[in-house]
Please model this.
Amino acid sequence: MIEVRDLTKRYGGAVAVDGLTFTVRPGQVTGFLGPNGSGKSTTLRMILGLDAPTSGRATVNGRPYAALRRPLREVGALLDAGAVHPARSAYHHLLGIAVTNGIGPSRVREVLARTGLEQAARRKAGRFSLGMKQRLGIAAALLGDPPVLLLDEPVNGLDPEGVHWIRTLLRDLAAEGRTVLLSSHLMSETAVTADHLVIIGRGRLVADRPTADFLAENARTDVLVRCARPAELARLLRAAGAAPVTEEPGGALAVGGLEPAAIGELAAAHGLGVHELTVRQASLEQAFLDATGETVDYRATTGTSGRRTA
Model:
């Protein structure tokens, strides 16, 4: 497991991580989410011993990362896909990492094949696209066949086939009983990959919940209704306790607070023909925005003039 307990990191007067506590358990993919500047990268660096905490601790299988004798065999990590010498081939980049942990060349060839880089093994990494560098970074994380994997934005730069591949890979690794911590800004991908979510904002814990539970608790649902007389139906719905009832483009109504069956029965009782009743659930992206709205430090203005709109 990865365990973070009362973890705090200060840079002078600035607090990057503030008393953070959570556990990443084996057998599932845990999504690690937060707005820009929330402290995600700092937390990952402290887990891997790259930054020292001001207070608190982060451990892997009960020990600090620095205490692991052969860390690559216990933790595989990808923080920066560009951290590779451009003149070195993919094979020799991985081989150089492998020998420091007593890993032989046969394992290098295995991870090259598993990440789809077998044909590019002798090419210089400086000629790789961003997606190929991501694959190389994931290959490095897999070298020691570790029980714990920690990946920061692994989908960045991948094409659709690559996105499907990494999604399947992470879920397969979790199914093998490994601990997988995935940091990402891609909410749609996280929604179909992560079993559990740890969400932080301004260095503090916002949510630590199974993905399904977080969506059920935070994602707003409504019913899209189309009918020939929307204004009349809207009045009836509000009188029946529906809220909110708002008009959508094209004359449809977005209705909250009433089930589709109740809406249909109300319309039928007043002779209003209904053409569509569709239940809509907000995405993980919307649920995330709602949950972290008060912790966003970098918010763009709207409108072409740069002025805030009401």
Q: What stands out?
A: The radius of gyration is 24 Å. The chain has two domains: 2-216, 221-281. The CA atoms of residues 147 and 178 lie 5 Å apart. Residues 304-310 have pLDDT under 50 and may be disordered.
